[in-house]
Amino acid sequence: MLIAALTIAPAGAAERPTLLIMGDSLSAAHNIEQDAGWVNLLRERLDGSAEVINASISGETSAGGAARFPGLMDKHSPELVVLELGGNDGLRGLPPETLHANLAQMIEQSQAANARVLLLGIDIPPNYGQTYRQAFTRVYPRLAATFHVALVPFLLDGIALDEVLMQDDGIHPTAEAQPRVLDNVWPVLKPLVKASAS
CA-CA to 19 of 20 to 30 Å: which in 78, 128, 136, 152? Predict the structure, then answer.
């Protein structure tokens, strides 16, 4: 009986999934305390039921994320990948086709490793022009449909247009807004975490 118990325990421990978050400053707690960021709030909400690896870097583009991604996949072997990239591509006016290609590459690599994927959609300010903005924002639903991955259409839904919830730069949410960011992600992420643990 003792031997059986010892052999069962490690198997149970291995069922705790690893969640890899690839993002930019929106997920790197830009200009606020790290503990207040939505990714850390997610870690607290999961309460040890999943390991959360936050590989987000302020200023990261989709190209930078794509370059780092294979090494992170090899290192962490995540069951679940959250992709929150594109904001800096948009702010730099980079081609939406490049964003699409970089995100598609990371999704394909995730799926090849049998990892589930959650895509977090980003929007950009209207002063970039309606044509460019539409081409940019359409990248996310197109990818979700093509690769059959989960999608949060807009990470900062209900936040971005509220001056009280945004920092002075008008781009990054305040510490007070971080629970709202998590609330936008959680309904789509929760079933993926549960499925990854089964």
Answer: 136
